[in-house]
Write a structure and sequence with these properties.
Elements lengths: L7 E9 L8 E2 L22 H11 L6 H12 L5 H4 L21 E11 L1 E2 L10 E2 L18 E14 H12 L14 H6 L1 H16 L24
Parallel strand pairs: 4-5
Antiparallel strand pairs: 1-2, 1-3, 3-6
Helix pairs in contact: 2-4
């Protein structure tokens, strides 16, 4: 019996701080696969809100998941008070190089689709069907990520969202959809007691709630990057 090879679809999000596409940092999520050296942390029946949606996004295209483009927009807004960034985990607010709080805002964002599989202990059974690593069968769950004993192996399948900046997402996605261009006051992490005492905060909050309940999603075709033809909303491959 040969070792089975699992191809788990995963969308990997990366951002650039210099805007020159010279260096990209991967945006970490709390639960979905990302860094190949990080142990799996998701356990059934727990279905984390954002990471569970990322699973479905990886099965389709961004044209069928306009919320994903809104997520990319919020990532580029990079507001430290945005609760959406808290869904990504504490590491998302730090630099990948030195693990310190980032001093620059993100300039570009892109997404790629990968296929993930577990690595195998180097045995005759594991080869050649899967990637084998020379490490012990058991490993401490909180050991260093720098250890040369990855849990995952991954293969890039292709582009999911091309590299875009804040202006492209604002003009081609956020404004046409009627989403707030800036982080609404009612969405910021402000105590309810403070919001209710401020008249200027109540109306924006009611507007956001009304739009979420009755606004719906407008027809969406895709983003136009570098003069490329917009993608069809019904046929992502066209």
């Amino acid at each position: 019996l040969e070792a089975s090879v699992v191809a788990v679809p995963v969308v990997v999000v990366e951002t650039s701080l210099d805007g020159q596409r010279n260096y990209w940092e991967e945006v970490p999520f709390r639960y979905k696969p990302g860094n190949v050296a990080r142990a799996p942390v998701r356990t059934a029946p727990h279905q984390p809100r954002l990471d569970w949606q990322m699973w479905f996004a990886a099965l389709g295209s961004y044209q069928h998941n306009p919320w994903f483009l809104h997520l990319l927009y919020r990532i580029l807004l990079d507001d430290p008070n945005d609760p959406v960034l808290d869904l990504l985990g504490a590491k998302s607010k730090k630099s990948e190089k030195d693990d310190e709080p980032r001093k620059k805002k993100r300039k570009l964002v892109r997404a790629s689709r990968y296929e993930y599989d577990f690595t195998r202990v180097a045995t005759d059974w594991a080869s050649p069907g899967a990637v084998a690593v020379n490490c012990s069968t058991f490993r401490a769950p909180f050991s260093s990520l720098e250890e040369e004993c990855p849990y995952w192996t991954r293969r890039r399948v292709g582009e999911y969202v091309p590299a875009v900046d804040l202006e492209v997402l604002r003009t081609q996605v956020v404004v046409p959809q009627g989403w707030p261009v800036e982080l609404p006051v009612g969405v910021r992490q402000i105590p309810w007691s403070t919001i209710l005492r401020r008249r200027d905060a109540i109306l924006p909050l009611l507007g956001v709630l009304f739009q979420r309940l009755f606004g719906g999603l407008r027809s969406f075709a895709g983003v136009d990057v570098g003069g490329k033809k917009k993608l069809s909303s019904t046929d992502p491959s066209s």
